[in-house]
Design goal:
Radius of gyration: 17 Å
Strand order of the largest sheet: 1-2-3-5-4
Helix content: 25-40%
Largest sheet: 5 strands, mixed
CATH class: Alpha Beta
CATH superfamily: Phage minor tail protein U
Number of domains: 1
Strand content: 35-45%
Order of helices and strands: HEEEHEE
């Protein structure tokens, strides 16, 4: 299993643990509107993002900084919902994102044998509402540092 796949699995495991059984994994992480939410709008997904290298002078190894995108969604019952209620749902997702971020720092993204640190940056962005699906979502970008043998 590649390092990226291992870290991604660790992140998913930690998200599932932090958010509990009320959240399910997204079937389609890239195109959120393809998902069939059917009564459970609380979903999450993880995608590998940008990759960079940091030279720390460790012989025979490179230090990699890998970006990951975490998507969280939640929904509302009526299309008649007002902005205040949508903002409240978005705020709840932001709080969940912060809880996940703190957990990933404390657990080294669920893969302490591989991850050296979760870099101290977190960027969130709203991605909803999504058309007629009554879904609000946020994207959270994090960076994870790990070492790889040359």
């Amino acid at each position: 299993m590649s390092e990226v796949t291992t870290i991604k699995s660790g992140i998913k495991s930690r998200i599932s643990s932090v958010l509990g059984s009320s959240y399910k994994e997204l079937a389609f992480t890239l195109d959120l509107e393809k998902n069939s939410y059917k009564g459970n709008e609380k979903r999450y997904g993880v995608l590998a993002g940008t990759i960079g290298e940091q030279d720390e002078g460790v012989v025979g190894k490179i230090t990699v900084i890998q970006g990951f995108l975490i998507r969280l969604t939640d929904g509302y019952a009526s299309s008649q919902i007002n902005d205040e209620d949508r903002i409240a749902i978005s705020d709840g997702l932001m709080n969940s994102a912060l809880t996940i971020y703190k957990d990933l720092i404390n657990t080294q993204a669920g893969t302490p044998s591989l991850v050296t640190q979760v870099v101290n940056e977190m960027v969130t962005e709203s991605v909803g509402p999504l058309g007629s699906k009554n879904i609000v979502g946020i994207d959270m970008n994090i960076s994870i540092m790990y070492r790889k043998l040359l």
